[in-house]
Design brief:
single chain; about 160 residues; Nucleotidyltransferase, domain 5; 2 domains; elongated; transposase activity; Transposase IS110-like N-terminal domain-containing protein
Length: about 160
């Protein structure tokens, strides 16, 4: 009996999103990663103030980024999301549980690189984010609900 020869190679994952980047959102700084083939420093830290987020968008544009993945951590992602969207990027909001289950990533630097790599392969699914008009309406409705609750408490 002849032994079977393996002729097939293991499947490889192909890059489907060449302009992919990622941001690991933090309370004090954001770690951003771009394609390591286009720069010597593919990962960079940015502050959380508005001017820092505009610098982040400019850095992404200078490296040919078209789409950005970011984790939805607390409320820290909201200003980054809005500013990147204003600059014309496709922003994909990712639930942190989907990307965190892979071992071997211990720092924010590698988290950002890992997110970028997954995003470049098209493996990240974005969370629902309503349009700006709906988000504004939801904020008004929440505020109204709070005011009605406070008024009821004062009446009692």
């Amino acid at each position: 009996m002849m032994a079977k020869q393996k002729t097939e190679r293991p499947p490889t994952i192909e890059t489907v999103n060449i302009g992919a980047a990622a941001v690991d959102i933090g309370s004090r700084e954001h770690m951003a990663a771009v394609n390591p083939d286009v720069t010597d420093t593919p990962v960079r830290a940015f502050g959380t103030f508005t001017h820092d987020l505009h610098d982040l968008a400019d850095w992404f544009k200078s490296h040919g980024v078209t789409s950005v993945a970011m984790e939805s951590t607390g409320v820290y992602w909201i200003p980054a999301y809005e500013i990147l969207e204003q600059h014309g990027f496709e922003v994909v909001l990712v639930n942190a549980r989907y990307a965190k289950n892979v071992p071997g990533r211990k720092t924010d630097v590698s988290d950002a690189s890992w997110l970028r790599q997954l995003h470049s392969y098209g493996l990240l699914r974005g969370s629902f984010r309503p349009s700006a008009q709906i988000a504004t309406l939801r904020a008004y409705l929440r505020q109204r609900e709070r005011l009605v609750e406070y008024a009821a408490a004062h009446i009692h």
